[in-house]
TrEMBL record:
Residues 9-236 form the ABC transporter domain. InterPro entries: AAA+_ATPase, ABC_transporter-like_ATP-bd, ABC_transporter-like_CS, ABC_transpr_LolD-like, P-loop_NTPase. Keywords: ATP-binding, Cell cycle, Cell division, Nucleotide-binding. One of its GO terms (biological process) is cell division. It comes from Epilithonimonas arachidiradicis. One of its GO terms (cellular component) is plasma membrane. GO terms for molecular function: ATP binding; ATP hydrolysis activity; transmembrane transporter activity. SMART domains: AAA. Belongs to the ABC transporter superfamily. It comes from the Bacteria. This is Cell division ATP-binding protein FtsE. The lineage of its organism: Bacteria, Pseudomonadati, Bacteroidota, Flavobacteriia, Flavobacteriales. Part of the ABC transporter FtsEX involved in cellular division. Important for assembly or stability of the septal ring. Pfam families: ABC_tran.
Length: 236
């Protein structure tokens, strides 16, 4: 584990952190230090706090105790007005894709670029083509979300997450709505993209088949605590 105070190495750096939903402490004494470029799972039973932890990391839920940094942002000092800047450094992928249903894929991506300050029309078009190519969806950019399969919608959502060259992708059960074969495709895609883009990924999942197929490191939420383990330990 890198030293906890070295901001150059860690993309996520939580020390003694407390994660609270309403008045209920979900996770306590969280020490989590994830290096830049690292791929890791986020596991734990339903209600164990995976989504709450991710929400703290993307600025949706305030950090209530201890200290925390994500992509160089101090979570304790994070103001509402800083959240868009933090989100620019992150890519967020959800189980239900969360594409805007009333516009095609190209316009879904354009919406994000415009909302994050891009102005040049040609640069926006080029970036959209680039990320859609990287997920194999360039020919589908004029399709509406409902005209695509679940796997294709998730590919588009991953392309959207890549638009601003994120240093970290936070994925909350990205394969939860997909069949096993499509889940494997999405998993391979995420792993390859993370490597190519030197981007860290934290991916919440309940899918132990996938973890077995793609072993690695996992952050486990259990009994209000967080620990880090090698996924091989889960199958001993
Ligand atoms: N908006 C909320 N208000 C109050 N309590 C909440 C809220 N969201 C989650 N909780 C509670 O916080 C705890 C952790 O929930 P969380 O969604 O983080 O778990 P999870 O591990 O992501 O679960 P799952 O695997 O089912 O998605 C649960 O006890 C849950 O009931």
């Amino acid at each position: 584990m890198p030293h906890r105070n070295d901001p150059g190495i860690d993309i996520i750096d939580l020390s003694n952190a407390k994660i609270v939903q309403k008045n209920f402490t979900v996770l306590n004494d969280v020490d989590l230090h994830i290096k830049k470029g690292k791929f890791c799972y986020l596991i734990g039973k339903t209600g164990s706090g995976k989504s709450s932890l991710l929400k703290v990391l993307y600025g949706q839920l305030p950090l209530q105790g201890g200290s925390g940094q994500v992509a160089g942002f101090d979570l304790k000092k994070l103001k509402q007005s800083d959240v868009p800047n933090l989100r620019r450094k992150l890519g967020i992928v959800f189980q239900d894709f969360q594409l805007l249903p009333d516009r095609n894929i190209e316009k879904n991506l354009l919406f994000v670029l415009q909302a994050t300050g891009w102005k040049d029309k040609h640069k926006m078009e080029a970036r959209i083509d680039e990320v859609l190519s990287s997920v194999g969806m360039k020919t589908k950019k004029h399709k509406m979300p409902h005209q695509l399969s679940g796997g294709e919608q998730q590919r588009a959502a991953i392309a959207r997450a890549l638009l601003n060259h994120p240093e970290l992708i936070l994925a909350d059960e990205p394969t939860g709505n997909l069949d096993p074969e499509t889940s494997n495709d999405i998993m391979t895609l995420l792993k390859n993209l993370a490597e190519e883009n030197h981007c860290a990924v934290v991916m919440a999942t309940h899918d132990y088949h996938m973890i077995q197929n793609y072993p690695g490191e996992a952050i486990r939420c259990e009994n209000g605590q967080v620990s880090v383990l090698d996924t091989a330990e889960l199958f001993e």
